[in-house]
Amino acid sequence: MDPLNGTGAHIVAPCHITVAELFHQAGDRLRLCWIAGRAGGDRQLNSDTVQKPTLALIGHLNFVHPNRVQVLGCAEMDYLRNLSPEGLRGAVDNLFATEIAAVVVANGESVPDSLIAGAERSATPLFTSPEQSPLLMRVLSHMMTQALAPSTILHGVFLEVSGLGVLLTGDPAVGKSELALELITRGHRLVADDALEVYAVSPDTLEGRCPTLLQDFMEVRGLGVINIRRLFGETAVKHKKNLKLIIQLTPAEKWHSLDRLDMRASNREILGTMVPEVHIPVAVGRNLAVLVEVAVRNHILKLRGFNSAEEFAERQRAAIAADSLEED
To answer: At what angle do helices 133-148 and 19-30 cross, to 10 degrees?
Structure first.
């Protein structure tokens, strides 16, 4: 078992994203146009920080970190336009001397020829966009945070049940896929079958994503591989969802270890984040789909401050106290 996540799954090193991949993901959203430096498309980004290189333009290179995206807004372009030809060349040389990952000229600003030449000379991707620089920086930073988040692979079936991201886990052949298939027929949605990529996108948020190869597919014993989207329609699948609850399907021989009143909080640590976990016993004749739906509804109630087990225990304590008073 991996000591870092306590799940038995291995942790994948933080992902990387190249400039070309970022352009592919953000190009339409930000209306990016790649005008120079295409030879640098394979440059890797190792930080989600997006900077404005104002100080680098005037020679303070220690304020600009390499392998980051730099955004030139109105202030930076006004500064460049007011420079002499020699000063402009010097500012451009300062900018590209820092081994930056890419440059984005925002606000639909015109790009000086010297900036294009500098990008080609240093093989630094140069983009333009009509969007405002604050929006550019916010969206690019968010996309890189998603791509660079630490991740791990978990095994099970991940679904959206009543709007909640639920991972079904358990021993092989315990019936996870069959249960997931029944839940899908009841209107819930499949995210991933067998392998789930989990990303720590924030200190307390885990996002589960379906690997591209497995999207829409599920393997069911006796049926083989089936395409859920084609069988049940577009609304039956979803490609990512925040992981909020783990349901462990427990074989009958392990029932003795279960807490019948669920008085003890059960959690599983994944990438430093605690995820609530529920154990459901598996036996012939039990309607597991209904039990999962009720477990999800009960968890939603707990999130809203209602705990059925604690309410029952409190009522029991009150009844015992009342009986003691009557005896006195």
So the answer is: 140
Which one of 194, 216, 268, 302 is the catalytic residue? 194
Q: Which fold has domain 149-312?
A: Rossmann fold (3.40.50)
Q: Where are the domains of the chain?
A: 17-147, 149-312
CATH of the domain spanning 17-147: 3.40.1390.20
Block means of pLDDT (10 residues each) for the chain, length 328 residues? 41 67 91 94 81 57 68 88 88 84 91 92 94 90 83 93 94 89 95 92 90 92 92 94 93 65 70 90 86 92 84 85 74
Query: Among this protein's residues, is 155 annotated catalytic?
Result: yes
Nearest Cα neighbor of 196 from 145, 148, 234, 160 is 160
Catalytic-labelled residue, pool 43, 68, 176, 189: 176
152-182: string of b/e by CB count within 10 Å (b at 16+)? bebebbbbbbeebbbbbbbeeebbbbbbbbb
- Is 286 a known active-site residue? no
Tell me the C-alpha distance between 158 and 165, whole Å: 7
Give the active site residue among 31, 38, 52, 155.
155
Catalytic (active site) residue 176: yes
